[in-house]
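Structure ticket #2291
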Amino acid sequence: TPLPLCRLLICNGDTCGQNSALRPNALRQLWDAEGLHETVPMKITTCQDTCEHASIARIVTASGTEWFENLQEEHYQALIEWARECKRTHTIAKRSPLLEQKRFRGNIPE
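Resolution: structure written out below.
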């Protein structure tokens, strides 16, 4: 089994969790069904202390952390497509322009 390339952390804290676009159970089931955890382990987290940017996700790689804010259904779908591409190529795939426009500077030090 290849080592994971990075980790995906998706906030489901009080503020982010109110976003109807995030369906944690469906996301977990898809990740499991497609074996995406092998390449991009995904964790639904509690509050990541960035409520002003809700809903957020982080991609954590060896070179640092990328933060994405104000995520809606299409952004979660873009994260799924990105993870699929990571698995297919076994590389850290380029983020889509849709995701890149949601990038922000997080407030947890690297």
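Closing remark: Residues 3 and 92 are 12 Å apart (CA to CA).
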